[in-house]
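User:
Can I borrow your eye for a moment on a structure tokenisation matter? Would you put together a sequence-and-structure record for a protein of your own picking? Please set it down just below, with no commentary around it:
AI:
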Amino acid sequence: AAQNGHEAIVKLLLGTGKVNPDAKNKGGQTPLSRAAWDGYEAVVKLLLGTAKVDPDAKDEDGQTPLWWAAQNGHQAIVKLLLGT
């Protein structure tokens, strides 16, 4: 849901308390990494504000959500992540 920008679904899933907001995919990326990579600012805000996520989680290549946001030119997300 996070990697596709589905804010309402992310909010619903987090509200259940039954999902791990830091779960990693096959590439070692967390929902925060995927949302930062694809530029979904609202999802990034939601994850940072309502979930216990590690904003510095590294994927298999050692990249963090901040790196992905910067690499893809998502300045607003870079600012959000630097504020954590």
